[in-house]
Design goal:
Number of strands: 12
Order of helices and strands: HHHEHEEEEEHEEEHEEEHH
Distance between the termini: 11 Å
Strand order of the largest sheet: 9-8-12-10-11
Radius of gyration: 29 Å
Helix content: 25-40%
Number of helices: 8
């Protein structure tokens, strides 16, 4: 009795298909070069850029509210956001139905009542708050300025479970969180060469991130910025599936199984 006669036909087909489909764990396990007993690995994981902050860009929509001692004088500034007074101690509240915001125009400035054109591009949200607080002191005592992004979004495309446009919940969204929100990378996505497309200072930049390496934590693209696009490339298997080659493997496996069955029957 030869080797073929000992093989169960269905089992042999499954094994053959498995050989073509298996993927090395190093190509799918995140941070697989991290080692607990390696000082460089530990340092890379522990290092966090606590000073990270998104900067304001052209075409951003900013929600700006100003509170102070004389609420009447601040209505014009707040009305640009669909904001109205709550009537409690000079506090200003947001109207959820009509938040308009201030557009950062092509010159990088916003147009505010009383204050005129104010530079916004290139500043962080907190920096703009400080600048505006100093400017509105002429109109109110003890001013309180709040600035928020209204178009704080990013997109995830390519080999993920749910591609699409997502809203950032805060200013420290990482590429890992973005991919997680999109349902993670599919089995046919490249984890070693994730692309981040970013517009910064009027220029389009492309960064590449390796999700399999601990070095991702030191990448300038680890934290996402407004309107970033994350693209997960397909692996070669994705190209193969589109050409029908996996179906070819299946046909071959079935053909081999039938051949083995015929041989076994002929020997009986």
């Amino acid at each position: 009795m030869n080797l073929f006669s000992k093989c169960k036909t269905p089992l042999f087909a499954v094994i053959l298909l498995y050989c073509f489909s298996c993927t090395p764990s190093k190509k799918v396990v995140y941070f697989n070069d991290y080692k607990d007993n390696d000082s460089a690995s530990v340092a890379a994981i522990k290092t966090i850029k606590v000073n990270f902050a998104n900067t304001i860009q052209k075409n951003d929509q900013l929600w700006i509210t100003v509170g102070g001692s004389n609420i009447e004088d601040l209505v014009s500034i707040n009305s640009g956001n669909g904001i109205g007074a709550t009537g409690t101690g000079g506090a200003v509240g947001a109207s959820s139905s009509s938040v308009l915001g201030y557009l950062v125009e092509s010159d990088g400035k916003i147009q505010l009542p009383y204050l005129g054109r104010i530079q916004a591009e290139g500043l962080t949200r907190l920096q703009l708050e400080v600048n505006l607080t100093g400017l509105v002191k002429e109109y109110t005592k003890d001013p309180i300025v709040n600035v928020r992004f209204l178009n704080y979004n990013f997109s995830v495309m390519g080999e993920v479970t749910r591609s699409g446009k997502y809203s950032m919940s805060n200013e420290r969204v990482t590429v890992l969180e973005a991919i997680s929100m999109a349902g993670d990378v599919t089995d046919l996505g490249r984890r070693d060469n994730v692309i981040v497309i970013r517009e910064e200072n009027g220029e389009r930049k492309i960064g590449r991130i390796n999700l399999l390496s601990k070095d991702i934590f030191n990448s300038p693209y680890f934290y996402l910025r407004t309107n970033d696009v994350v693209y997960v490339e397909p692996v070669s298997a994705r190209f193969i599936s589109r050409t029908g080659i996996p179906q070819y493997f299946t046909v071959v496996a079935i053909g081999v199984s039938i051949l083995i069955t015929i041989i076994n029957l002929a020997k009986k």
